[in-house]
Design a protein that fits this description.
The chain has two domains: 12-241, 3-Layer(bab) Sandwich (Hsp33 domain), CATH 3.55.30; 247-298, HSP33 redox switch-like (CBS domain Like), CATH 3.90.1280. The chain contains ten helices and 13 strands. It has helices at residues 31-41, 45-63, 115-119, 149-159, 193-207, 209-212, 218-225, 247-256, 259-268, 288-299, and strands at residues 12-18, 23-29, 71-77, 84-90, 93-98, 124-130, 137-142, 165-173, 176-187, 232-238, 240-241, 273-276, 283-286. Helix 1 (31-41) packs across helix 2. The longest helix has 19 residues, at 45-63. 39% of the residues are buried. It binds zinc ion. Zinc ion binds next to loops.
């Protein structure tokens, strides 16, 4: 019998290897991150699960970025009732939003939240990595199921040529996020076939990730899942829901609109303009006086 953990440890990502480095992996614990997303966007359970899975998947991509100020943006537009989904990640944080956080869909026959039906599968997932080079890296794949883990696995194999096992899970009870997490396993070139067979054999265990996390922290699950495969933790990095927006960035965005649009705003809006951040709902007010000052900067 497992006992429920006394307290939820802070969100973090374990960077691991298996089989003396033949497989690299990421094990993500992310309930706090998904809770924050859910409380900002007031999501229904199925929207919480969909956004939460995308946040965990985005964290996999962003934690692998080497440059400190690099970022990755993942968008999914599957034609389902949740609309477009977007998540942005940098080294130790993620943020995200969906078009329709109020989407409600009956659960699947097996009792699980109908994430695939909410997201849809007629569309694409795109990954844009801003590595601070001249042009960003862009990868795009057709959606497989809209269940998101499968879509990430498809992305890794077709766009990054890295065959991958991906599991993403969010456990929601009522409006409460109980657990959230992700598993990514990537056999490296030369990985023995027996090890790959073992991982495939054990993959149904990772599929129940969100339920398992309710009883046991990730470190314990790792020991159980990978018994005999020599799991080694290389490092543990923190993860949180954090938005980097600021008044300064909003000013830059306004200036980027150009002088015509700024002039129109200055004339139209008697009380200036209020901008709302997509990701954290922070609002920044710019008075007419502020707008004129920005207009002057735009004309320079
Ligand atoms: Zn923000």
């Amino acid at each position: 019998m497992h006992t429920k953990a006394e307290h939820t440890p802070c969100d973090h990502i374990l960077h691991i290897t298996l089989g003396e480095g033949a497989v690299r992996g990421l094990l993500i614990t992310g309930a706090e991150t998904v809770r924050e997303a859910s409380s900002i966007h007031l999501t229904t359970p199925v929207a919480t699960a969909a956004l939460g899975r995308l946040l965990m998947g985005t964290a996999m991509l962003s934690t692998m970025l080497k440059e400190d100020d690099a970022s990755v943006t993942v968008t999914i537009d599957g034609g389902g009732p949740i609309g477009k989904m977007i998540c942005v990640g940098d080294k130790e944080s993620v943020r995200g939003a969906v078009d329709v956080p109020t989407v409600a869909i009956p659960a699947r026959a097996d009792g699980k939240l109908a994430v695939g039906a909410a997201v849809g599968r007629n569309g694409r997932m795109s990954v844009v990595k801003d590595l601070r080079l001249k042009t960003p890296y862009v990868g795009q794949v057709e959606l497989q199921s809209g269940e998101i883990a499968e879509d990430f696995a498809h992305y890794f194999v077709t766009s990054e040529q890295s065959p991958s096992l991906v599991s993403l899970g969010v456990l929601v009870a009522g409006d409460t996020v109980l657990t959230a997490g992700g598993v990514l396993l990537q056999p490296l070139p030369g990985c023995p076939d027996e090890l790959i067979d073992q991982l495939e054999l054990r993959s149904p265990l990772f599929g129940e990730l969100s339920r398992e996390l309710a009883h046991e922290p990730m470190e314990g699950l790792m020991e159980a899942w990978f018994r005999g495969l020599n799991p080694v933790i290389l490092e543990s990095t923190p993860l949180s829901y954090r938005c980097g927006c600021s008044r300064d960035r909003m000013e830059k965005a306004l200036i980027a609109l150009g002088k015509e649009e700024l002039t129109r705003m200055t004339l139209d809006e008697m009380d200036g303009a209020t901008l709302h951040c997509h990701f954290c709902k922070a609002s920044h007010h710019f008075s007419t006086h502020d707008l004129i000052r920005l207009l002057n900067r735009a004309m320079r």
